[in-house]
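User: I'm putting together a teaching handout on how multi-component assemblies are represented. Below are the sequence lines for each component of a complex, exactly as they appear in our records. Could you produce the 3D structure of the whole assembly as structure tokens, so the students can see both representations side by side? Please keep the chain order the same as the input.
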Amino acid sequence: MLNSFVPKDPAFKARVTASFDKQGLMITLGACIVHVAPGMVEIVLQASPAVSQQHGFIHAGALAAIADTAAGYAALSLMRPGVGVLTTEFKINLVAPAKGERVVAKARVIKAGRTLPVAQTDVFSETEGREELVALFTATLMAVEGREGVND
Amino acid sequence: MLNSFVPKDPAFKARVTASFDKQGLMITLGACIVHVAPGMVEIVLQASPAVSQQHGFIHAGALAAIADTAAGYAALSLMRPGVGVLTTEFKINLVAPAKGERVVAKARVIKAGRTLPVAQTDVFSETEGREELVALFTATLMAVEGREGVND
Amino acid sequence: MLNSFVPKDPAFKARVTASFDKQGLMITLGACIVHVAPGMVEIVLQASPAVSQQHGFIHAGALAAIADTAAGYAALSLMRPGVGVLTTEFKINLVAPAKGERVVAKARVIKAGRTLPVAQTDVFSETEGREELVALFTATLMAVEGREGVND
Amino acid sequence: MLNSFVPKDPAFKARVTASFDKQGLMITLGACIVHVAPGMVEIVLQASPAVSQQHGFIHAGALAAIADTAAGYAALSLMRPGVGVLTTEFKINLVAPAKGERVVAKARVIKAGRTLPVAQTDVFSETEGREELVALFTATLMAVEGREGVND
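Assistant: Of course. Below is the structure of the complete assembly, with chains in the same order as your input.
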């Protein structure tokens, strides 16, 4: 799908990464934002016991967390300065156990609505350079204006 | 709704808590399992910058993680020994920002299917003793038998 | 769950049923609205080959249709006159095949948000007077004001 | 995304269309299956008051019905003869009102699991030859073997 979004904020990249750095959960998980383009964001998470479920796979909650953050910032990258983003709902299908060395969440905006943008994130595991789709994620975000404490 | 599930494993409580203790992500987040009954599990998470998103609310990914773990163990509590549980998909609606001192995820099995149980989790924030619903969560779990490394 | 919503429009019942009568799809399916209370709506659909899938069960799309209509009108019942309701997203879990003589969709508002209410619908099949849960449904609605053609 | 599925049944196309013809709901709605390829199915529905909601748009339930049927048959196209398909859950995001002359649901299998395939359907409205995305749909299907009355 051709992605030809034009950002309303020329400094969108700095704004997204500055906001990402305020997400304590991403620091706690050890997730890194590795790509920011208009309407597209990628986040990487290393596999480790610290993010695992009981069988040693990466926990679905950790996959959902990076998929959600990626989707939210994909949406934020298209918003005007001072507008904040919140997630209203998301759905994730876990199509394979998340094994391997790390996972990468690749989000793209599907519908850049003014108030309720929709984004999808594909999550891939990486094992010795080979990518496998492990999760499909769809979220509805919300653009928030004029609410104290909810900007960027 | 009357919950009258009869567990197939009299030691279900020990099995659930032993499995919970293997979830590295729960330890990383600081989540605790506080209630285990047949088809019902509750998990508590303290609010802190370590689990926050950019505005200081608890991150939707952290809410999803404890909701998912609670739903999975609610389902596991009804399974025979040696059967493992995996999540195949879940959906979460974030109906209010997760503020307050802590959140509690209360899961219950809605359909105790032999292979694909369905569970729902309500997540509440607690602020000075007052509970507020912050998230509605529904998951399809999968009972896994005879797959190496996937038991309990 | 105690439902203690106070409708903003004393004529909410007439408004809901008048709007329901404009849903051509409900007429085509033969669905009837059988209960309207503040934040709660019930819709009934008779089983017949006209609403079936290939094995003779009621089609998941027909279940989703009545669940969605019930959820939307449960939300509309709490809105001011002149405000319209649209569905932004929904999720349905089909926990048992929909057999029997008819199905009933019972919706209730979970969160009566000003702009994005959330409602859940349980769908039951009825066979010789016995009810069985066949589907769990959750929707995010949207209150629409001042958009031509979208009221009630 | 490259779709390179190899069907297990050379007669997959005839099997899918014969099964589609048994879906009473599709006949009732006036939906037509217009494309069947390995792991891909397209279904078309004409706009009319018979499938509308209260504002004259095509009802979300009708969109979900054709999206679900398309997803199910995309999955069935890859299954062995005699195996039946059921939907276990689906999620739909309605990203724009469904106006125009007709809608087309384009489904593709994302994960061709042996027991729980996952498919996605994009639904487009067509207005004077112009396509607009109106809905994003994701479903988990289930392959059913040896259950009487549930084949194809």
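A couple of points students might notice: Chain C has three helices and six strands. The mean pLDDT of chain C is 95.
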